[in-house]
Amino acid sequence: MALETWGLDGTRSGIRFSVRHLLFAKISGRFTQWWGSVQAAEGELDFASLELFVDTASVDTGLDRRDVYLKSSDFLNVAAHPSLAFAARRVEEKSDDRVRILGAMTIRGKTRDAVFDVEDCVRTRDRQGRDNASFVMKSGIDRRDFGLTWSGALDSRATLLSDHVDIEIEVTAAKMAQAKRHGMTAAPTAAP
User: Fold this and answer.
1) Fewest 10 Å CB contacts: which of 20, 38, 118, 157?
2) What pLDDT sits at residue 187?
3) How many domains does the chain have?
4) pLDDT at residue 185 above 50?
5) Are 176 and 8 in contact (CB under 8 A)?
6) Exposed, middle or buried by CB within 10 Å (0-12, 13-18, 19+), for 2?
7) pLDDT-based confidence at 180, cuts 50/70/90?
8) Residues 187, 114, 166, CA angle at the centre, nearest 5°?
9) Can you give the CATH number for the domain in which 112 is found?
10) Which of 1, 47, 2 is nearest to 179 (CA)?
């Protein structure tokens, strides 16, 4: 079966994260520069491949001082690792009509397995006759698995920052008129 290539629409997509701070508050943020593509079997929403690449310098939590620190060697180490990535390996169907995407996530040069649950998968056609697909991917990672070990320990029992990070990727993709053969099929995307 032929593969269709879909480019990600940055105006209707986004990559967000959140982490507990001081055990009760949540810090939320997003990345504003990223790119990627989806390949799917013709006429299906099941993925043959999905690749996302994120510009780590585009991290935005709404507080400049915190963003500067997140870019430092204690966290994302933007100077040495200017991007992070996720590449899907396979898709599994779940019993409740949802799917799970299994793949590899690379942060700070460390690659680990990652699993995303996919929700709200919809395929539509717009007024111009273009095919669109949208879905939400959710996952959680342990930041220590990627060398993000700074904890800001308050004492032997409490830390400033949780090790668990929630990730949500909202994707809207449009079928590209002419499939490309290699790698990235969309230019870096700026979030609005």
Assistant:
1) 157
2) 45
3) 1
4) no
5) no
6) exposed
7) very low
8) 85
9) 2.40.128.110
10) 2
Task: Indicate the SS3 state at residue 64.
Answer: helix
SS3 153: coil
Q: Which residues of the chain form beta strands (DSSP E)?
A: 3-8, 14-21, 25-31, 33-41, 47-55, 59-60, 83-93, 99-107, 110-125, 131-142, 161-175, 189-190
Could you give the CA distance from residue 25 to residue 172 in angstroms, rounded to a whole number? 30
Q: What predicted TM-score, i.e. pTM, was given to this entire model?
A: 0.81
Over the stretch 45-103, which tens digit does the pLDDT of each residue have?
Answer: 566 678 999 999 999 999 999 999 999 998 999 999 999 999 998 888 776 767 889 99
CA–CA gap between residue 111 and residue 31 (Å, rounded): 19
Pick the more confident residue, 192 or 17. 17
Q: Which pLDDT score is estimated for 77?
A: 95
Sorted by sequence, the CB contacts under 8 Å of residue 44 that are 6+ apart come out as none
Q: Which domain holds residue 137?
A: 3-190
